[in-house]
Here is the input.
Amino acid sequence: DPGDLRGAGATPPAEAPTRLWPKLPPPSAPAEDYGTVESVPVKGVDVPGGNLHKVDPVTVATTDFDKNPGIYSRSDEVYKETAQQLTKCDGGAPDDADADAEKCPVLDAYYRDLTGDGKDDLIVGIRLAQGHAENLDIRAYAMEKRQLKQIMDMGDAVLGVELAGHEVIVRAVSGMQGYEYRTVWSWDSHRKTMLPTTDEIVRSPNAPSRKPDRKPEPAASARPVPSPSDSA
Here is the structure.
């Protein structure tokens, strides 16, 4: 509020974190991490002057998806069906992605400096074949030493995507009624990729304030719902 400063009350005392099971031995192998991303060269795409605004985003997306399955396996039906749909892209994303998704599943491209080098990077979305929980594949690309590289790849049942500063924020469906996943992807200068630096389950902004009389069926989600034992 404008005007003089106002007291917010007493500050609670700081408490150091309490470590549980301090003698627990380290794990023998890392757990599976859906956020593991590698910097992947995209070969076969010419970027004039290293300016990503001068390259066709559909060409980048189709070339990369064809040569780099990413989080999918070439034997997966979702990969096979989406690759088949990408053959319908004949130069440029559709003007209306919702209306022309049957022709080309690549959505309109966005540009933002994600790496902090002062140059725009490229963000594209590929709408996956119908009937799959991961309904959107999101990929980001940057130029590194005159080489086009994929710096982000993730697929989820996406509710919305936002850009804030150098970060990509992805909202995705949760199997818990009234909640959604919110993942913040940030540039990591050591791995040279975007990593999910924040991944949380939050209350959906459109969730009802009161519990419904009847429990609806949970929405399809690309991620497993954590059980009480998982969070214990």
Remarks:
- The chain has a mean pLDDT of 83.
- The beta strands are 40-41, 110-112, 121-127, 136-144, 147-156, 158-164, 167-173, 179-188, 193-203.
- The longest strand covers residues 193-203.
